[in-house]
Amino acid sequence: MGFYVQALILMLxxxxxxxxxxxxxxxxxxxxxxxxxxxxxxxxxxVTEAKANYPPxxxxxxxxxxxxFSNGRNTADVVAQLLGFENSIPPFATVKREEIVRGVxxxxxxxxxxxxxxxxxxxxxxxxxxxxxxxxxxxxxxxLIGNGSLxxxxxxxxxxxxxxxxxxxxxxxxxxxxxxxxTSSLYTTEQFAEVLIEQYSKQLSKLYEYGARKFGISGVGYxxxxxxxxxxxxxxxxxxxxxxxxxxxxxxxxxxxxDLESKLSGAKFIFLDPPLGYSSYFNVTxxxxxxxxxxxxxxxxxxxxxxxxxxxxxIFWDGFHPTESISLVDGARTxxxxxxxxxxxxxxSFPVSDADYSD
Length: 359
Prior knowledge:
Blueprint: H1 3-19, E1 30-34, H2 75-83, H3 127-144, H4 150-157, E2 161-165, H5 168-175, H6 183-186, H7 189-210, E3 214-218, H8 227-232, H9 240-263, E4 268-272, H10 324-337
Parallel strand pairs: 1-2, 2-3, 3-4
């Protein structure tokens, strides 16, 4: 791990520990929606190219390959840890009945805002299906903690944290692969952003109807600088067309979140900026740490290959996803940005070292 990352985490650890009292997490539950950046095992049993439950994924995670598209923790794991949860938020695919009270991770590799996104990769759980899965969770909570009352469960959910990280696949695995999808011939990038935002707004409104009030919404990262996308476009520099497209999407998303907050009583939306500037702190910025595939599942690690040994100096673990070092930084940054959404009176415990954290 680079010196900057160590310093940032140690500083955040110190300030967090000093502010914690008791052993209760800062929010009663944490629900995670999104794509492979947050997936922690929901795709493992799907018939899909988009899965990461094999080595070298998980080489630095206590439980080995779990379905995380990383060498170790992802951002959702870090946020959960900083919020004071003892373990990571469990995936919907394997969550136990008694675990749903503290939250569920619904994220799925290759998931998009649009249902058709990444169809060529096989199974994936789109944002709409993740909402359906959340409705299933709510029905279970009605029996578990609501004494049969949906209103009582929704009152509980009002206090919980919801983060959503979705949209990149609608570009990577839809708009920018015209051999599979017609969207780039049907829409300009601005029009496509409008199509996505219209659907996304409905999805966030549905979460509100279910009881969500505290939202952390991630902007789409600068996908044009991902090694796999540069390889697809046969260039050694960031793909301006891809980055320009997501800049349009993010601008419309910020505006839409403001509109939703003004319309939906009691809702609070925080836009989470995509990460920038990490190249100043990591020695290797555009080379994947693992050997990547060039087949349909382009950019993913080739199975059972030995990855680089200096993983702490890399931004990219595979062709699209960050290393754990980046997730530590991004998780800390996300946690700080979400501060208005978690209670200052309800603090939780924080592990004293990385070794204390595992599933």
